[in-house]
Amino acid sequence: MIDTVYIMSAGHSGSTLLNLLLGAHSSATAVSELTHLPKNIAHNEQCSCGKAILDCPVWSQVIHRLGQRLDLDLQGDPYGLQLGFIGESRSQYSDRLGRSYQAAWKIRRIIVYFQQLTGIRLPAWTQHDFAAAQRIRTQVYEEIRAVTGESIVVDASKEYLQGVSLYQADPARTRLILLVRDGRAVFYSNLRRNQSLEESLDAWRKYYRHALPVIERRIRPEHVYRLKYEDLATGTEQQLRQICQFLALDFEPAMLEPQANPQHITSGNNMRFAGTRSIKLDTTWKTALSSEQMAYFERHAGDLNRKLGYA
Hints:
Blueprint: E1 4-8, H1 15-23, E2 28-32, H2 37-42, H3 59-70, H4 99-118, H5 128-148, E3 152-158, H6 160-169, E4 174-180, H7 183-191, H8 197-218, E5 224-228, H9 229-234, H10 236-246, H11 271-274, H12 285-288, H13 291-307
Parallel strand pairs: 1-3, 1-4, 2-3, 4-5
């Protein structure tokens, strides 16, 4: 029985929307980017149910149970909960998440990526912290299922190495969704944030260039669902029906109205508060990108975009 769904995608590709839609199924709990749970606790951030995370009827129980299970004071030291790399931005604990922390996690990712890409077995100690974070993540999933009574956890943390490792640990019960979006739309979205041409393209391009060969080599094709954001936005019901079939679930019309019942999502964009009453595909990039910007994209990422299915 499938009990874990992990969404892999570059940023600004629609993972919050997909998480909300899947979380509206009666058998599923959407947790958005679970990697950020320690930061959410540290800042007592607002859950999509409207309450602060420490007052949320779901997360308060999950946090309490986790603290007891792992023998951690999660309110006093939330970053004691090791779930993987956490960005330094807005951290209350810059000494814990500073340059040495980021450098260490970069090295861990390089080691894990090398092994996944090549298949060469490296000593276990070289991946100890990464593997430990994965084990703790599965324990968090277990506590979420125990508190909610729902059998499937949908994690939109997006990091493909986490997704692949979770799958390898339990391929019978884990399914992956690879979510993609036309790179030109992501490129334009980043340009609007006053990023340079290189910065606007860099993260999206690096993500899929590195992720695709690992996914193709390490995941059985029938266990990863490839989804275009554009198809989800323009044919929502059809895509949800197909995803439900992929997950061996019955489609439920309530999935089309995730705002009808409160969910408990603590990270992601503000869509988690506003709901999805109208899903509109934004194609502004088609007319807004200049010919020079389009030419830059084509030179540096045109082939990759076509590999993802965009003409």
